Structure formats: C-alpha cells, structure tokens
Amino acid sequence: MAGKNTIKVETLRTSRGPFDLTKTFTPGDMIKWVGGSNWAAPVVPGTDEGDTTAAAAFIGVANDQQPINELGTDLPFGQCTIVSRGLVEFTADDNSTYYPGDYVTIGSGIQKVKKTAASSANAIGVVAPENHFDVSGGSNAGIVAVSGTTKLLIALKPQYTLLSTL
After folding, report:
1. pLDDT digits over 33-62, tens only?
2. Where are the beta strands (DSSP E) in 22-150?
3. Contact 31, 50 (CB under 8 A)
C-alpha cells in the first residue's frame, strides 16, 4: 500500500534580523542583506532598480516600521521582522502585461516592482496566480498594468541565503 503525502501549506514565513536603526522603513518595504555590515537594510530607490546584485541580496519585505511613529521611538533590540515567503501586494512600475509566473524585479520605488527587464538573475518574485486574470477565447488576457497605479500580488522568491556567503 502506497503511503500518503503530508501536505504542509506555508502561507507566510517571517524571521527577525539585525537592522541598522539609522534607516527608515515601513511595512511592505523591500529589504536586502548588507553583507559587509551583516545586517538588513531597505533597498535604495532608483539605485537598486532592476539591479542583479540588489536582487541577489533581497531577503523579503519589512513587517515592522522604523521608527515607530506612534511611540516616537526606534524599534527595540535593533531587529526587524521580515516576511521572506508569502504573497505581498506591490505597485506595478511599468505598463507591461503581467501573467502568472512572470518574473518581477525591483522597481523605482521601495514598494514597486516591474516586469520590464526582469529575469531569473534579478527577480525578487513572480506574479501570483491569485491575481484576478480574465480568460477569453481559451487564453489568459493577462493584467495590463498602469504604472504607479496597478496593484499586483507577488509570490516572494528571495535569492539570498546565508549559504551564499560561506
């Protein structure tokens, strides 16, 4: 008799990482690992756009806010909760047509992604099939994005692992 597979559905994975408390970030901001400093930091808008090195250091998105405006203080212990696996909503940064499984890379803003020039080398995730797609005539019509407006669910696929630094 054949065994049965145990199915584990992982909807979200978070971790806590050391963070430079001089950096400002909000929930949903893209985070990368800074190898020389051995801590996490937000991606740099414009500079990290579509960059292969920044994408290779991408570890997820912030689930915390720094500083905590309501309390008028920095995060305690210099650590940030980072969502490394799951679906995250980003704003499209180009006017491309998006299909399930399309690679996306870092856009011009800290919460923007783009399909233009995205590849396996600079991807931070893929377009999730959970987005609303219209099928017409037996074919997926895709989502025609309006830059700066269209929201997309992206399945995070961080490229960075600690093993890559050993």
Report:
1. 998 888 889 999 989 999 999 999 999 999
2. 30-34, 39-42, 58-62, 79-85, 87-92, 97-98, 103-106, 112-114, 125-127, 135-136, 139-140, 143-144
3. no
**Diameter over CA atoms, the chain:** 62
- Can you read off the two tokens belonging to residue 67? 């500083």
**Phi and psi at residue 35, to the nearest 5°:** -60, -45
Residue 2's contacts (CB-CB under 8 Å, 6 or more residues apart) are none
Burial of 155 (0-12, 13-18, 19+ CB in 10 A): middle
Which residue in this structure is represented by tokens 């995730």? 125
Query: Please, how many CA atoms are within 13 Å of residue 138, restricted to the half-sphere of its CB?
Result: 0
Confidence check: pLDDT of 106 > 50: yes
pTM above 0.70, yes or no: yes
DSSP state letters, 136-166: ETTEE--EE--TTT-EEEEEE-----GGGG-
Tokens in use for 137? 């005539």
